[in-house]
Amino acid sequence: MANYIFGLLLCISMYSTAHAQKTDKKLTNNLKELIAGFDGEIGIYVQHFKANKTVELSADTVFPTASIVKVPLLVGVFDKINAGELLLQANYRYRLERAYGGSGLMQLFKDSAQIDLSTMISLMLTYSDNVASIWCQELAGGGQAINPLMDRLGLKDTKVNSRTAGREKIWEQYGWGQTTPREIVKLMRMIEQEELFTPRLSSKMYRYLKNQFYNERSLSQFPAHIATASKTGSVDAARGEVVFVHAPSGDFAFAVLTKNNKDQRWTRDNAAEELTRKIANLIWNHYEPKHPYTAFDPID
């Protein structure tokens, strides 16, 4: 896989040099105005692929991923599947000692319940299941295997920190994982474009990412019939989301990451979550003036 990735990244670099991206000045200015006064740190990266335009606001600043780290975990698991070391249909036996708090359903499983890897991955991404995610991280070889893989993909700041030897101090600062707005969008684009593994495996990865239970943030700001793939992440002082949107004007993707937030409430009107919705709606209506969307407030 290493030679394949090296060749792929070389081609991407050559293509990028010949097709330099342009800054979307109007959207950049509108987003700057929208986020002014946010009580915390925020980074945004937006890329419209057909128009070849971007928005970069602290796009290379490192932020906590919270559960967005589950996207690199997905890639790590599929790297093992690609190598023939894991099978989606393989069964595993759940034990109560694996119970872990936070989001997800597996912590409610009975002892000795069986689950296959495909269902585990689905729970990790759709319901952001922490038990399934930690299990998938183990099966992928942990941060010791996933982090070098991110390096080979050119994602130097996208890392798994939790349960990874040598990263204890970094874990104290960023938690489970870390990334930048630009890098997590790049990783989503690689998955969507089937650049990491075979088309069959790549499309399977993307299908998992399209099933999102937590749809009250950015996804609530687009018409319901629009296809998207996304992952949210939340801890007390950081809320984030990465979204890939298949819009009428052409595909676009964006990431909104925050940290050191003053508002740490676990409510729908959390300041960072409210701001993320406004950002998503602004981006949609900027790119889709022929299909304007006035979103309703999320339903409790």
From TrEMBL:
- From which domain of life does this come? Bacteria
Protein keywords: Signal
**Which reaction is recorded as catalysed by this protein?**
a beta-lactam + H2O = a substituted beta-amino acid
- The reply on keyword Signal is yes
EC numbers for this chain: 3.5.2.6
Q: Does the keyword Signal apply?
A: yes
Q: Name one GO molecular function term.
A: beta-lactamase activity
Q: What SUPFAM superfamilies does its record include?
A: beta-lactamase/transpeptidase-like
- Domain Beta-lactamase class A catalytic, which positions? 43-258
Q: Name one Pfam family in it.
A: Beta-lactamase2
Signal peptide interval: 1-20
Q: Name one GO biological process term.
A: response to antibiotic
Enumerate the InterPro entries for this protein.
Beta-lactam/transpept-like (IPR012338), Beta-lactam_cat (IPR045155), Beta-lactam_class-A (IPR000871)
What family is this? Belongs to the class-A beta-lactamase family.
Protein name in UniProt: beta-lactamase
Q: Which organism was this protein described from?
A: Sphingobacterium paludis
Q: What are the top taxonomic ranks of the organism? A: Bacteria, Pseudomonadati, Bacteroidota, Sphingobacteriia, Sphingobacteriales
